[in-house]
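Practice problem 4.
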């Protein structure tokens, strides 16, 4: 276990799973949806974040997501990626199992925690389904404390 020196404990959940947007996705994150930009928040969620969070959840780990060292963000990218996470797993689960690192631009972390999370939790409770703009492979959603793997949404017909 060569990574043991990198483990630390928060609320009795070991942080081990890490995602870096720069290393695991792109130096140039773009806008909200796939139909308006490459490297979108929608794409990051479906290609990286959903699977990474599911793995951390199953292992009873906390997921650390590092926003630093990219070329910058549109707020819509972060809102879409982290909002979908709340929609699929619930605010309580996300707040207890995620660490967001944004040392270079701390306002992004504050926006996610104070705006995106509560807004998307309200959407989840009101059953306002997320929008997808391209077909994605099945992704994970927590339903009644059970992880389900399905294609939950389809892009709207043109």
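Answer key:
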């Amino acid at each position: 276990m060569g990574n043991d020196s990198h483990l630390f404990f928060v609320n009795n959940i070991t942080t081990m799973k890490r995602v870096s947007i720069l290393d695991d996705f792109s130096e140039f994150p773009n806008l909200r949806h796939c139909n308006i930009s490459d490297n979108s928040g929608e794409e990051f969620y479906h290609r990286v974040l959903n699977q990474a969070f599911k793995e951390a959840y199953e292992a009873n780990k906390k997921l650390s997501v590092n926003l630093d060292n990219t070329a910058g963000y549109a707020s819509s990218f972060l809102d879409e990626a982290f909002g979908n996470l709340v929609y699929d797993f619930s605010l309580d689960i996300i707040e207890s199992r995620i660490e967001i690192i944004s040392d270079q631009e701390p306002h992004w972390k504050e926006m996610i925690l104070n705006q995106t999370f509560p807004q998307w939790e309200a959407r989840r409770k009101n059953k306002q389904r997320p929008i997808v703009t391209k077909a994605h492979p099945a992704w994970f959603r927590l339903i009644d404390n059970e992880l389900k793997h399905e294609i939950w949404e389809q892009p709207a017909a043109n």
